[in-house]
Amino acid sequence: MPTIALLQMCSGIDPEANLCAIEDAAREAAAAGAAVLFTPEMSLLLDRDRARARRWIEGDGPQRAEDELSLIAAKLGIDIALGSMPVGVWGGKWANRFHYFGADGGAPVTYDKIHMFDVELATGESWRESAAYAPGQQVVTVADTPLGRLGLTICYDLRFPALFGELGERRCDAIAVPAAFTVPTGQAHWHVLLRARAIEASAFVIAAAQVGSHADGRQTYGHSLVVDPWGEVLLDMGGDAPGLAYCDIDLARIAEVRAQVPALANRREIPKS
């Protein structure tokens, strides 16, 4: 039964400080026997000032961070599921990119966030992720992890069940949902959506989250969760502070749930009128 670690963060505008926090957590998690460390969306840099962030994103910052995290995973003997960091891509836009680093020190498996967070909230918060970020084009899974097949998603992807339906069709054993949820949307939807996605895919859902008041002025909801395939919440880290927590993953639970409610096997194409 593998043990995983979740790092709930209050990432700021200093990538070096954020990287140090991740390395410290990886060291502690490895010493505790965890097989995988999961971190939130935008773990390395959470900065809504895009002019300031550009210097790091479009310089050598992302590649240096990637190289360092690969070394950390290999040195400590722990897989690191880096929820995401911004990277420069094409056409003057960036990608919100998940990196899965294996303990073997090889090249990471990456996934670019597909669904852009473009919303106007009743609180007055306005977000236009698509103004700076290009959406990803591929569904990605990591075939061989301590948890079996792991599906990769990021934050706002949570609201789009077709993506999770595809990950279910691919028989993912677990799905990562790193996030930086706003407080009002988190209070309303975070727990119910994560539980629903776990039930739909008959898979574990692992959601490391940002929390608290950040240096760029935003507030995030926290409540990093682990949900089992039946929809039971196994871990909730609360919404008060950063921290590191652990959860044992009983992989036999997947087959038990799929035998009781074989929704994946019973799924059919919906006729179009």
Topology of this structure?
Elements: E1 3-8, H1 15-31, E2 36-38, H2 50-57, H3 61-76, E3 79-88, E4 94-101, E5 109-112, E6 118-120, E7 126-128, E8 141-145, E9 148-152, H4 161-169, E10 174-176, H5 183-201, E11 204-207, E12 211-213, E13 219-221, E14 225-227, E15 233-236, E16 243-248, H6 252-260, H7 263-266
Parallel strand pairs: 1-2, 2-3, 9-10, 10-11
Antiparallel strand pairs: 1-16, 3-4, 4-5, 6-7, 8-9, 11-14, 12-13, 14-15
Question: Can you describe this structure?
Answer:
With 273 residues, this protein is of the alpha/beta class. The protein has a single domain (3-265), classed as Nitrilase/N-carbamoyl-D-aminoacid amidohydrolase (4-Layer Sandwich), CATH 3.60.110.10. It is 30% helix and 27% strand. The chain is built from 7 helices and 16 strands. The protein has a 6-stranded mixed beta sheet with strand order 5-4-3-2-1-16. A 6-stranded mixed beta sheet has the order 8-9-10-11-14-15, covered by helices on one side. The protein has a two-stranded antiparallel sheet with strand order 6-7. Helix 1 packs parallel to helix 3 (61-76). The protein starts with a strand and ends in a 7-residue tail after the last helix.
